[in-house]
């Protein structure tokens, strides 16, 4: 799964790769981003416009889902294209969630040991996501997950779907709606690029977003 991540690199490191024009500012560093908060995402509204950065609510609940309908933060890659809850967004409302890494908890230890997982070269990463209009008119998103690969398997059986650079443009293209074509042109990063290390249990608390020490090896 993906239930906590970090975003602290300057936005141009992401925007240039994703084709977002005229982005110069740096984000407020967030070393512990929890669900149920506003997060930075990249989406493309139409094929005639370039991608843009927006703030989306991390929690996916379509406006037609009333009452106590679920508000998932993740969607499984195995079913996202066919699930009645997600398939419309997968077809036309795909997004990227930029990050520097994410946290998972090793269940084989007592208490569970948190790890920070990222690229070995510390380059920024892009989680594949989907978004929808919520009942209040705002946009909410979910991060797509896949079976863990590479060293991420040491910590958890799931991980966010991280796209390689060549996949960013087709993933964002709202005119690309054919599922089989998407499968052929969208790929995850090489599993050999993934690394991780144990971090302080301070990350268990969804606070201290500006605490850079959260990603330090424990």
Automatic annotation (TrEMBL):
<dbReference type="GO" id="GO:0008233">
    <property type="term" value="F:peptidase activity"/>
</dbReference>
<dbReference type="InterPro" id="IPR003738">
    <property type="entry name" value="SRAP"/>
</dbReference>
<keyword id="KW-0227">DNA damage</keyword>
<dbReference type="GO" id="GO:0003697">
    <property type="term" value="F:single-stranded DNA binding"/>
</dbReference>
<dbReference type="InterPro" id="IPR036590">
    <property type="entry name" value="SRAP-like"/>
</dbReference>
<dbReference type="GO" id="GO:0006508">
    <property type="term" value="P:proteolysis"/>
</dbReference>
<dbReference type="Pfam" id="PF02586">
    <property type="entry name" value="SRAP"/>
</dbReference>
<protein>
    <recommendedName>
        <fullName>Abasic site processing protein</fullName>
        <ecNumber>3.4.-.-</ecNumber>
    </recommendedName>
</protein>
<keyword id="KW-0378">Hydrolase</keyword>
<dbReference type="GO" id="GO:0016829">
    <property type="term" value="F:lyase activity"/>
</dbReference>
<keyword id="KW-0190">Covalent protein-DNA linkage</keyword>
<keyword id="KW-0645">Protease</keyword>
<keyword id="KW-0238">DNA-binding</keyword>
<dbReference type="GO" id="GO:0106300">
    <property type="term" value="P:protein-DNA covalent cross-linking repair"/>
</dbReference>
<keyword id="KW-0456">Lyase</keyword>
<comment type="similarity">
    <text>Belongs to the SOS response-associated peptidase family.</text>
</comment>
């Amino acid at each position: 799964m993906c239930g906590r991540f970090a975003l602290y690199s300057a936005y141009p490191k992401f925007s240039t790769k994703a084709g977002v024009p005229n982005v110069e500012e740096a984000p407020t560093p967030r070393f512990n981003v929890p669900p149920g908060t506003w997060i930075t995402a990249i989406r493309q509204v139409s094929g005639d416009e370039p991608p843009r950065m927006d703030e989306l609510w991390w929690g996916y609940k379509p406006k037609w889902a009333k009452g106590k309908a679920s508000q998932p933060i993740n969607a499984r890659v195995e079913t996202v294209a066919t699930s009645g809850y997600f398939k419309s967004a997968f077809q036309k409302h795909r997004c990227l969630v930029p990050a520097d890494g994410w946290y998972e908890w090793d269940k084989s230890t007592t208490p569970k040991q948190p790890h920070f997982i990222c690229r070995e070269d510390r380059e920024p990463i892009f989680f594949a996501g989907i978004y929808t209009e919520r009942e209040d008119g705002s946009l909410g998103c979910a991060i797509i997950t896949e079976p863990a690969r590479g060293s991420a398997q040491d910590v958890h059986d799931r991980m966010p779907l991280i796209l390689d650079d060549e996949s960013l443009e087709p993933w964002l293209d709202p005119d690309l709606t054919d599922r089989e074509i998407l499968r052929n042109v969208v790929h995850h990063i090489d599993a050999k690029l993934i690394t991780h290390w144990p971090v302080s249990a301070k990350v268990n608390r969804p606070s201290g977003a500006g605490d850079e020490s959260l990603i330090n090896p424990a």
